[in-house]
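# step 3/5: fold
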Amino acid sequence: MKRIIVVLIAIVTLNLTGNVVGVYANKNNEEFKDIYERKVPQTFHYKFDYDKLYRFLDISEKEYRSEWNNGKTIAEIAEKRDIYPQQLIAYLAEKQFEALDRALKNGDIDRYFYYDYAISYMKNDIIEFIDRNPNKK
């Protein structure tokens, strides 16, 4: 008897879950129709503008290259100039959002890609960019 009740509960649960998913994932649902009609795959690669970065860091390209070749990360170069990590991250995020805005406006990406990139990838891309240096000893 217990097995029958457990099986019935499982079936009811699966049926309810299926119905809920059906409501939200139905391609005829006008609210989500644009998700089904989106251009996939989409790509976006932000290319950091080093000239602007040098100006933000208040450093010449020669000084930057010297420190970089000596194993300093961008975060360390910024810290040496009293630029806090949050300021550096905010600056780089602003530049990436500007590029994302242009890509969205030009139709290269859609708003879902924009959201996904901003939420899922941007922070990690920036952290990796400022904390890595293959010359680090």
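# step 4/5: annotate
The first helix runs from residue 2 to 25.
# step 5/5: archive (pending)
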